[in-house]
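Example 3.2
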Amino acid sequence: TDVADIDIINFDAFDYQEKFVLYADNLKSFLGKGGIICWGVVPTQEFSLKFDAEMLSAKVMGGIDTLVKKGIDRKQLLGQLLISPACGLGSLEPENAELILKALSQTSQYLQKTI
């Protein structure tokens, strides 16, 4: 795969955000080419109802704040942002997958209201 052909980077922001933001220079270049960053913020393996929309949104915004401090434009980050579950849902019980998707929807709505 030619890296230049990549449109979206989707990563597990719940567990690996601290490592992801270390690549701010590469991310700045990727965003400059119109790339999208998809923050996998809703945990799938250790999901609990204690993970609410406000807490998960704060996780995303913390990563964005870190990247802004490293020289990436906040408006660009927010304009090229998606959120997703941290990992796939295929191995989960349907009830758990539904809870994760509900948390994802609530987090999306919360972010849209606050940014």
